[in-house]
Structure formats: structure tokens, C-alpha cells
Amino acid sequence: MAEAVPGDAGAVATALINGEQTIIPEPLQDAYRAAGLAHLLSISGFHMTLLAATVFFLIRRFLALIPAIALRVDTKKIAAWCALGLTFGYLLISGMSVPAVRSFLMTAVVLTAVLLDRTALSLRTIAWAALVLMLMYPDAVFGASFQMSFMAVLALIALYEQTWLKIPWRDAKGELSLVRAVGVYVLALVVTDLVAGGTTNIIALYHFNKFPTYSLAANLIAGPLTGLWIMPMGLLGVALMPVGLDALPLRAMGAGIDILNSIVIEIASWPNAQVHVPPMKTAFLVLAASGIIFICLWRGRLRWLGVIPVLAALIQPWVTPAPDLLVDESARVIAVSDDQGHLVFAPGRAGRFVREVWTDRYGVSAVKWPGDDMACDKSGCVLNRGEKKVLLAFAPAALAEDCGEVDVIVSTVAAYDLCTDGFIIDRITLARKGTHALWVSKDDITARSSADAMGTRVWMRGSVGLVLFGESAAADEDVER
């Protein structure tokens, strides 16, 4: 692949054929995410169904040209068997990642329905595919790929079951018009992207906290380009690899990918191509999913009552205040929020992974440390929030100076031997209970730790301290050991 298609196009071509994304440059991956086209880079339902549909269509059309076969054999089932076999081969080539297996299972259930003379695309088909996948990979239920894929397919099937939406390709005289066919195709793309994108974006906001503003425009261009040019050339190239004639179709595939990459980079450069969204609570994700499922499964006008929980879930991130202070379990990464809920990080390079996770979750502020509501010296900082003072102690000197003068103490050193006044979160507390988030208001102070959210587990850092020393505060050196 790399020899036939060099450069970035070859990296994307490799991802489309066998799911290997690590060789794609990070800036290009970011551009795909910003344009709302990251789903093209991982082998998923789009690629698997595109392959199955292409093979099914071509085999059935070819057999229809042979009267001896077409009049005596059910060509539909032969095409289904061929499509099933080739998609399984594609699954093996892809490395059998969870998204690829999920996509194959959904496609296989559809093709099996064809073989059994059942309705290929129905809500029952989705249920069977989900059941099989959950039996194989129970943990996949918690992943974004499982949730987004099944929600999108559920919404699309529920939509296209509506009789009022069925627009015939031929006119009233039964003639096929090119203009009409193109119009119906474009309309189907728009409706599909609006419905599938609308449902999956709600789940994506929960997992990734980013909204691709121009995803509709990007998918309208990238969908036909990928489906009619890039993937067919890739399929032809893979088919010709055993006989060494793959170079020409792969180069044609690379030319299409070059155009696709240019489009992606251009769209990603548009103003506000990717908008940050505040965190959504898990309960509201469940609420939104319940509303969407109710809309898709119910019949009659009452189904639109499901819009209410969906809107409630979309509003929640914007009305829930961000934590005023975040400090990780090692006390090496500290951040305070600005008036928009974005984070201002304390200087330092430690905890790169933690910084990336928090940045994705809350966004980075344009304000530099320290903010206007902070006063700092070498030993610590005092944060003023809601008529309360929070001490960030980086050295024992700060504790000695401000003990009893502040409402909350967050210390990167052991604090209880030096100060016992006020609400204290020190290094020992962080080691025992993990990362802490702090909300400070005029009337209240609320703190929540990782241990509060997930309980004390044997494998969690700090659990060793609890097991060895009980609930008493151990020496800092002992906890570290």
C-alpha cells in the first residue's frame, strides 16, 4: 500500500483497508475530527456495509445477465453468500478490532435475514446484532463506538420505515430521470446525515466534548467521494493484489484520497470548525438515549414526547457549573476555571495525559496563570471565589502563613501536621482518594474525589494506604512507598 500510494494519502488508504491509523500524522487526524469525518478513518459500519452492498449489487446484476442461472436459481441468496464471505475476509484483513467486529455482525445479521427470506433492515435486525455483540464483548456497551453506531442505525431504520418519506426514483410516467435521481440521492444524503449525525452527536458530546460545526457539509462531499471512488478502487486493488496488478487501482484510490484530504484540511480551517461543549453527566446521556429510543420505537404522535428528555440533556452541560479547582492524585497538576468554565493550568509539564484529558473535558482558557482572582508567591497562591478564599500550598511556608486565614486548603505537601483549621485536601488525601474537584460558592464548599465516584478498589492508587493503615492519615513517605 505504501509503495503504491506514498505520503499522507497512503496512510489514509492503509487505515481504510486494514484499520491501521497510527501512521496517519496527528495534524491530519485532528483535521478529520474537526471536519466531522473521523468515522472514515476507522473500519466501521460505513466501510463494511459499503463493501457488502457493492458486492451484493454487482454479483446479483452479473447473474441476472445469465438467463440459465437467473431463471432457475435465487440470485439474491447467491449474492448474499458472496457478500457475507467477502465482508468476513475484510474483517480478517482489518485485524478484527471491536468496531470492525461490531460492523461485521450487523452486516452479517442483515445478510442472514436475506438468506432466510426475512426483512433485511428492521428494528429486530438491530436487536439481534446488538445481542450477539453484547454476548461477545459485554464491555463494548460502554464505548462510544457501540453507542453511536447502534443509535445511528436505529434512527435511520425508524426514519425510513415512514411511508411518507419514500420518494420514487422514477417520475409519474415511470421514466428514470438523471436530474431526479441525483436530486433524490442528494436529498437522501442530507436526511441521512441530519438524522444519523443528530443522534450520534449527542453521544459524541458526552464522550468527546466537541461538536464539528460543518460536519453536514463535509459528509455531503466526502460521502459520495468515498463511496463512489475511493473505496471501490481500494476494493479492486485488494482483489488484484494476488496477481500483482494492484498498483493502478491503488494509485487511483490515492488520487481520490488526496482530494479528500484537501477538503478535510480546508473545512477544518474554517472559523469555529470545532466547538467545545461542557461536560454532560452520565444520567443525562441515559436520559437523551431514552428519549431517542422512545421516538424511534413508539408509534403515533406521542413519540415526539421523547424530544423533551433529549432537550433537557442538551441543556444540562450549559447550566451545570464547572469545578472551580481540579487537582490530580499526584498533586502535580492543578487547574482553576475561568468565568466560562475553561481551565487555567498551573505552570509545569508533569501529568501530560491528565492535562490532555482535562483539556478535552473542559477546554483551555485564554487567561494565563495566575488569574485576576489569584494572588501568588513562591510558596503558594490564594484563590478568591464566592467570598471564600482557597489556599493552594506548594510549600510548608504557605501553610504556616495562611493557616486559619482561608476557608479551604489544597496542599501539595502533607498539611495536617502543620494546620488543622478549615477544609483541607492535602497530598495524603489525594493519594488515598485520587483526583479532587472543588466547587466553591458563597454559601457552600463541595469536594468530590475519584474514590467518591467509583468507590475504593484494590487496584486504585491509595487503596494500599487504606488497607495498610486503615482510615488514619499515614505519613506521606509511607503512602508514597
What would you note in describing this structure?
The protein folds into three domains: 7-276, no CATH class; 282-319; 325-480, no CATH class. It is 55% helix and 10% strand. The chain has 19 helices and twelve strands. It has helices at 7-18, 26-34, 45-64, 67-70, 75-93, 98-115, 123-136, 144-160, 178-208, 215-240, 247-268, 282-297, 307-319, 352-362, 396-402, 427-433, 450-454, 463-469, 476-480, and strands at residues 210-212, 274-276, 325-327, 334-337, 343-345, 374-376, 380-385, 388-393, 408-411, 423-425, 436-440, 445-449. β4 and β5 form a beta hairpin. α2 packs across α11 (247-268) and α5 runs antiparallel to α6. The model is unreliable at 462-481 (pLDDT under 50).
Number of individual domains: 3
Helices and strands: which structural class?
Answer: alpha+beta
Quaternary form: single chain
Q: Could you estimate the helical fraction of the residues in percent?
A: 40-55%
List the defining traits of the structure above.
3 domains, 481 residues, 19 helices, alpha+beta, 55% helix
Please describe the topology of this protein.
Blueprint lengths: L6 H12 L7 H9 L10 H20 L2 H4 L4 H19 L4 H18 L7 H14 L7 H17 L17 H31 L1 E3 L2 H26 L6 H22 L5 E3 L5 H16 L9 H13 L5 E3 L6 E4 L5 E3 L6 H11 L11 E3 L3 E6 L2 E6 L2 H7 L5 E4 L11 E3 L1 H7 L2 E5 L4 E5 H5 L8 H7 L6 H5 L1
Parallel strand pairs: 8-9, 9-10
Antiparallel strand pairs: 1-2, 3-4, 3-11, 4-5, 6-7, 7-8, 11-12
Helix pairs in contact: 1-11, 2-11, 3-5, 3-6, 3-10, 5-6, 6-7, 8-9, 8-12, 9-10, 9-12, 10-11, 12-13
